[in-house]
């Protein structure tokens, strides 16, 4: 559920998580990692929100989209508490991408009464208003999404929160921004239960998790996967990596692309989650 984004303006990575302070109060924790100096700046904000964080940078502002709130920080992480506003939904494990000042929320509806996890919402950053954009043919949790040209792409994910999707996690959707009724459906050659997607030129890199479960639904393994989708050819290719999985539960928790490099957060999904790594690889 962690959020991560790269900033080319100051060659830094931003990471956002939900955490707890010494008084066990829920906080939003922001880390800024300067890739030139390897120094870390940190800011925390006491707030009650769901665990999922999705990030966007515009100018000198960092937008942290949570399950209920949008929090706006300065990218230098100074100036006190962020500006915090409710966006009007209850979301978890939602996908997010941005175009022209609009943040697109993909699935993840977690409302108790009538969850509508198939819906796509738009949050206008300037006016701070939410509107319904369109609906996918199925519910989506933990799907990866990005926009290339006029098309919104959605990869993998689960149709039921926390339940491995199996073959359904191979589904990819292409939604035309100007004509959302025109939805193309493709099938990848790889199951991706938890997906993170980032564009690079005409390519979309997809990193995430393949979850295995037994007949009772208990998770028995969680493996990493990385692939690339060519938007010109509509083809997907799984990439070979040197990632190891000593516990059977080491996997990718987030991914971003900055200056021709892929960065991933790599950690186990069980045990001591205080230990985690950021790994980097050239795209070429």
N-end to C-end Cα span? 28 Å
Q: How are the strands ordered across the major sheet?
A: 1-2-3-4
Oligomer: single chain
The main sheet comes to: 4 strands, antiparallel
Number of strands: 23
Share of residues in strands = over 45%
Summed up, the helix count is 0
Topology as a string of helices (H) and strands (E): EEEEEEEEEEEEEEEEEEEEEEE
Structure write-up:
With 284 residues, this protein is mainly beta. It has no helices and 23 strands. The protein has strands at residues 3-7, 12-20, 26-34, 39-46, 54-58, 61-65, 69-74, 83-86, 95-99, 102-106, 119-124, 129-135, 144-148, 151-155, 171-176, 183-187, 194-200, 203-213, 219-230, 235-238, 250-258, 261-268, 277-282. The protein has a four-stranded antiparallel sheet, with no helix packed on it. A four-stranded antiparallel sheet has the order 5-6-7-8, with no helix packed on it. Strands 9-10-11-12 form a four-stranded antiparallel sheet, with no helix packed on it. A hairpin with a 2-residue loop joins strand 13 and strand 14 (151-155).
Task: Reconstruct the topology from this structure.
Elements: E1 3-7, E2 12-20, E3 26-34, E4 39-46, E5 54-58, E6 61-65, E7 69-74, E8 83-86, E9 95-99, E10 102-106, E11 119-124, E12 129-135, E13 144-148, E14 151-155, E15 171-176, E16 183-187, E17 194-200, E18 203-213, E19 219-230, E20 235-238, E21 250-258, E22 261-268, E23 277-282
Antiparallel strand pairs: 1-2, 2-3, 3-4, 5-6, 6-7, 7-8, 9-10, 10-11, 11-12, 13-14, 14-15, 15-16, 17-18, 18-19, 19-20, 21-22, 22-23
